[in-house]
Amino acid sequence: MPMIKNKLSIEQLQQRVHYSGLATRLSLLGLIGLLSAWMLWISPPALANPITIWLVLTLPLVGFVPAIFGGRARPHIWLCFVILVYFCSGVIHAMTDKFMLLGLAKTMLTVVLFCSAMMYARWKSILQGMESPQSPTQPPSV
């Protein structure tokens, strides 16, 4: 059973990749669901078209759904960059009286999403490196 520097076997890495991927998918869908419920049902904006605001908020996340469910590591990295905006928005809403609970829920979902996507990308790249080692005739890639 091959081991890596931190003494994890391939099976342990596969298990971590599986669970972090599951957490990423669930928290991404949860964040999309929360934003949808918030904009369309709980507190639709009074001065703007709620459908337009909903589309602006959810389309960036919905665009990641096929790639995240496809299991590639690079989209997980890009998702970490994109959800920082949602984290900032959640913190701002958590500081208001009217939307404190929704803001806290949004902040917690983005924290879970960020951490799980980051760890998925890390563990998936380590696992791919272990499963497909470079041939000795090729120079190591930088």
Automatic annotation (TrEMBL):
Q: Which residues cross the membrane?
A: 21-41, 47-69, 76-95, 101-121
- According to the entry, what is the taxonomic lineage of the organism? Bacteria, Pseudomonadati, Pseudomonadota, Gammaproteobacteria, Oceanospirillales
Tell me the organism.
Motiliproteus coralliicola
What is this protein called in UniProt?
DUF2069 domain-containing protein
Which domain of life, per UniProt?
Bacteria
User: One short Pfam family name for this protein?
Assistant: DUF2069
Identify the keywords attached in UniProt to this record, alphabetized. Membrane, Transmembrane, Transmembrane helix
